[in-house]
Amino acid sequence: MELITLFKILIIFTCLQRIFELFIAKRNEKSILALGGRIIKEKNYIFMVLLHTSWLLGLLYFSFSDRLGALNPILFFGAFIFFLLGQILRITAIWTLGERWSTRIVILPEAPVVKKGIFNFIRHPNYLGVVFELVALPLMGGLFVYAFVFSVLNGIILFFRIREEEAMLCQYNDYQDKFLSESRP
User: Fold this and answer.
1) Which of 79, 101, 122, 147 is least crowded, fewest Cβ atoms below 10 Å from its Cβ?
2) What is the rounded distance in angstroms from the CA atom of residue 152 to the CA atom of residue 138?
3) Residues 114, 117, 98, 110: what is their CA dihedral angle, to the nearest 10 degrees?
4) d(CA 15, CA 151)
């Protein structure tokens, strides 16, 4: 199989995966709301949606246009390892959080935070997985500037999102006790 064909398959797979995850997130949000949970209104949620949508649409465009040229096998498979690592981190986080996972910040007041599985080792495995994927997929196609620009924009969004998410988890749950107190001297 040619690398460009594999690249196209990975882009389509990622698009379908994200659409499937949106259905999971909506189902989980309904479940959490039924238990008395709250969806936190994020100021930058729309920017995250626009970033991820434009990232995927741009990758679709590049993969099916004549703009890529020959792909470098070493770069492709090196980046592919990071893509797989990102997949493992994200899928493990989604699996571990179960019905508590969503694309939005959703709080279930008084419920203990999830600190098992991958969350014993990494505070935000889903976000780290996304970071790996955002850089890896474009690099597989040799899109260096694309990978850089979207990674920087994602980093800005995550900076604010993680702060807001952790603040809400500290306010409504036991996040402070489970995660933040361990990192203090």
Assistant:
1) 122
2) 14
3) -10
4) 18
C-alpha distances in Å from residue 91, one per residue of 49, 55, 118, 128: 19, 20, 10, 12
- List average pLDDT for each run of 10 residues in the chain, which is 185 residues long: 92 97 97 94 94 97 86 96 98 96 93 90 96 97 96 97 92 82 52
Q: For the chain, list the domains and their CATH numbers.
A: 3-183 (1.20.120.1630)
Give the DSSP letter of residue 39. E
Give the Cα-Cα-Cα angle 154, 82, 178 (nearest 5 degrees): 65
Nearest to 181 by CA among 159, 170, 172, 171: 170
- Write out the DSSP string of 69-125: -SPPHHHHHHHHHHHHHHHHHHHHHHHHHGGG--SS-EE-TTPPPP-SGGGGT-S-H
Structure tokens at 1: 């199989």
Q: What b-and-e string marks burial along 28-39, b requiring 16 or more CB atoms within 10 Å of the CB?
A: bbebbeeeebee
Of 90, 27, 18, 13, nearest in space to 52 by CA: 18
**Per-residue confidence (pLDDT) for residue 69, from 0 to 100:** 76
Whole-number pLDDT of residue 182: 55
CB neighbourhood size of 160 (10 A): 14
For 43, the 3-state DSSP assignment is coil
Q: What separation, in Å, do the N-terminal and C-terminal C-alpha atoms of the chain show? A: 53
Q: How far apart are CA 90 and CA 75, in angstroms?
A: 22
